Structure formats: C-alpha cells, structure tokens
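Input record, target 12 of the design panel.
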C-alpha cells in the first residue's frame, strides 16, 4: 500500500479533483466529507475512492475519523485540508453564528486534522500537509470578514506548523486558489462573477484540476524542500 492521504471535503469540487490527482500519483486516498451523502456516494461510484463522513470543525469527530482511517489503512501520511464553507454578508448583517461557523470549519478544521495526524507523521519522519487557503485570505474581500479572517489564519497556521515539522520530514504548505468554477463559485450572482472575471488577467475562472496539480506537487517526494510556502493559483489576479 502506498502513502495514505486524507482529503477533507474530498468528494466534491476542488477536493474531488485533489482526491483524484493523489490517487493517480499512487496514493491510497480517503475523501472526507461533511454531510452530503448523495454526492459522496456518487463520488465513490465514479472514482472508487472511499468517502468517510465527519465534521472537520468538530475536534473529537476529527480524532475519531482519523483513528478509523488508521485502523483501516495503517497510517495517515498526507492531509489536504480542503473542506471549507462560506457564510457571506457585510459585517452589519453577519451574525455571530456566521462568523463562528466559518472559523470553526475553515480554520478549526486545519487545527483538528493536524492534531490528529501530525504526531504520527513526526514519529515516522515523513509527512505532507497542504492547507487550502484563498486569494480572499491574502487580499480580503467585501462581505467576507469571517472567510477572509479564517483563510488568512490558515496562511499563518501553515507557516508556524511548517517550522515545527521541518526537522521531522513533515512539510506544511498552503495553496491560495483564485476563483475556481465549483459549486461554491456557482453561488456567486452572475453580475458579481462577471466583474470578478474581468479582473483576472488570464481572463477566465480556474479549474479544480489546476489546484489539484499544485496539491499533487506539494504532497510529492519531489517537494521535500518546499515548506511554509503559499502557492497562489489565481490566473494572475493577485500577485505577491
Ligand atoms: P465546495 O463547496 O464545492 O465543496 C466543499 C467541500 O467541503 C464538500 O466536499 C463539503 O462536503 C466539504 N465540507 C464542508 N463543510 C464540511 C465540514 N464541516 N466537514 C467536512 N467537510 C466539509 O467547495 P470548493 O471545492 O469550491 O472549495 C474547496 C476549498 O477551496 C474550500 O476550502 C474553499 O474555501 C477553497 N477555495 C475555493 C475557491 C473557489 O473559487 N471555489 C477559491 C478559493 C478557495 P459535503 O459535500 O458533505 O457538503
């Protein structure tokens, strides 16, 4: 059995593409998901990749979920923290619940998964963690104080944990996608989307597979010397 990977939110959108890319690399992949059983079932039928449900924002559920993966597949060598949600609204409309849900799932999920899987990687002297941030965590975005804060937090989390993992062969990197044509972006109203696309130098939305290729590289043996970095994959929309 090859290296074992968990991709959170791995049954749809960007996560599905990452699950497939890692499988093509010879990894044993388990896709986690949050609640959409129908999508997860269809994903497994399409890809042959097992899907396991737990809420990444729930600490105990993450520990139990990862323990079950270890019991079934032996260990966890690679974690891609991809699960994410939006609860958009300007600050004066945003509820505490909107804030908390996004922080709990998007940022809390990275902590919970790292707590469950980092110790084993450290002990074995090899590990790869890739956290999916966002262009909106780098640049901010109107109506997204919760999402921008959580994603920006992911970038800080990545750099801090990279320093802890470096001497144990565990790399920790982030990918900051720009606008990618998934269900999440399909929820953006058409006129808003048109304005967004107009600001992308490459002139189009990105594809999930373009993010997946970045994740495949960052989780490969070839990326041993890459840690604490943020790979921006955004068609040139934000350069820094
Ligand atoms: P989708 O909404 O298409 O898919 C989200 C995935 O996350 C689903 O598999 C969903 O599971 C899962 N998920 C949601 N909440 C939880 C939870 N609490 N526990 C476990 N799994 C959960 O999102 P995208 O593919 O568009 O986005 C993937 C990641 O990329 C996110 O982190 C997003 O913030 C980030 N991103 C996306 C961009 C874009 O343009 N699309 C741009 C920048 C960043 P289920 O199917 O069960 O609901």
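The sequence produced for target 12 reads:
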């Amino acid at each position: 059995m090859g290296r074992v990977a968990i991709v959170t939110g791995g049954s749809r959108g960007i996560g599905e593409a990452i699950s497939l890319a890692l499988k093509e690399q010879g990894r044993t992949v388990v896709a986690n998901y949050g609640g959409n059983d129908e999508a997860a079932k269809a994903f497994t039928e399409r890809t042959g990749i097992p899907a396991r449900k737990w809420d990444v924002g729930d600490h105990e559920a993450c520990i139990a979920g990862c323990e079950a993966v270890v019991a079934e597949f032996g260990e966890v060598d690679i974690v891609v923290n991809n699960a994410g949600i939006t609860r958009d609204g300007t600050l004066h409309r945003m509820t505490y619940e909107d804030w908390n849900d996004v922080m709990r799932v998007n940022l809390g999920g990275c902590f919970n998964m790292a707590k469950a899987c980092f110790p084993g990687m450290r002990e074995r002297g090899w590990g790869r963690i890739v956290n999916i941030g966002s262009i909106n965590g780098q640049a901010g975005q109107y109506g997204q104080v919760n999402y921008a804060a959580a994603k920006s937090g992911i970038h800080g989390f990545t750099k801090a944990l990279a320093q802890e993992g470096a001497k144990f062969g565990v790399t920790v990197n982030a990918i900051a996608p720009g606008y990618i044509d998934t269900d999440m972006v399909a929820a953006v109203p058409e006129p808003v989307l048109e304005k967004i696309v107009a600001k992308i130098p490459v002139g189009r939305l990105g594809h999930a597979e373009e993010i997946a290729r970045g994740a495949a590289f960052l989780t490969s043996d070839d990326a041993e010397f890459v840690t604490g970095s943020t790979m921006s994959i955004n068609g040139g929309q934000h350069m820094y």
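DSSP finds nine helices and seven strands in the chain.
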